Amino acid sequence: MAEVMELNYTISNEDFTRAGEASSDVKKKLKQLGVSPDAIRKVAIALYEGEINMIIHAYGGKITVTISEDAITLVLADKGPGIADVEKAMQAGFSTAPDKVRSLGFGAGMGLPNMKKNSDEMDIKTEIGVGTTVTMVIRI
Amino acid sequence: MTVNDILDILEAKPIAGKDGLNNEVKTACGSDMMSDVLAFAKTQCVLLTGLCNPQVIRTAEMMDIVAIIFVRGKMPDETMIGMADEMGLPIAVTHHRMFSSCGMLYEKGLTGGIIDG
Q1: Most buried of the four, A45, A102, B85, B114, by CB within 10 Å?
Q2: Which residues of chain A does B36 touch, with a Cβ-Cβ cutoff of 8 Å?
Q3: Contacts with B56 from chain A: Cβ below 8 Å
Q4: Residue A27: CATH number of its domain
Q5: Which pLDDT score, from 0 to 100, does residue B42 have?
C-alpha cells in the first residue's frame, strides 16, 4: 500500500438509526485493503464511538480517514457546542448525554476514554460554541 | 462452544444470519449499554442484550461479535434482521431473562474473558 488514500463522510444527526454507517463503510474498505484485523478493530471502535458522539452532542459533522503506509488517521470535525471540560470528559463514566440517548444504549461515559484506548495518538481541539475536532492515529 | 450450542442452552430461536451458527464462541458479554459493550467486549464474543434497536447490530459489527442473543423475548424488527443477514451475523431470541441466561452459559463453562487494566 504505497499510495495514500482518503475517505470522506458527512454525518447528519437526523436519523440515529443510521449512526455507524460511515464506520461500517471504513471497516469494509480496510478489510479489502488487507489491513490487519487488530488495526481494523481499533479503527472501527474508535471511529464508531466518535461518530456516535458527533450525532449525540454535535448535530453531525465531517469525518476524514487517511490511510497511509504505516498509519490510519481519523479526523472528526464538528461545529457543535464544544467540550467544556476535556479532562472531565476523558474520565470513564462521566457523561452529559441526555436520557433519550441513554435509552438507546449509549452515553455511559466510555466514549472518549475508549477512543483514546484504541488509538496510538489522540488530540482534541475544542472551543465552546465553535466546535470540536478529534484527531486519532492508529499505526498499522 | 458454538453459536448452536448457545442456542440449545438458552432455548433460543434463531432469527437471522443462520449461516454463522457453527461459529466458535470464546467469551460472552451481557449488557443493555452499547457504550460498555464497545469498551469491554472481548474477541469471539457472544452478546446477550435486552436492548433492541439497529445500533445493537452496528455495535456487534464494529466489535466482531460472533452472535447476538436478545433476552427477555425482545424481538428484532425487519431493519435489524436485514442488517444481520447481510453481515452473516447470527441473531436469536430467548425468553430467559438476562441474569438467568448469563448464569446458564457460565454454568456450561463460558466466561466473560480476562479483565484488563
Answers
A1: A45
A2: 108, 110
A3: 105
A4: 3.30.565.10
A5: 87
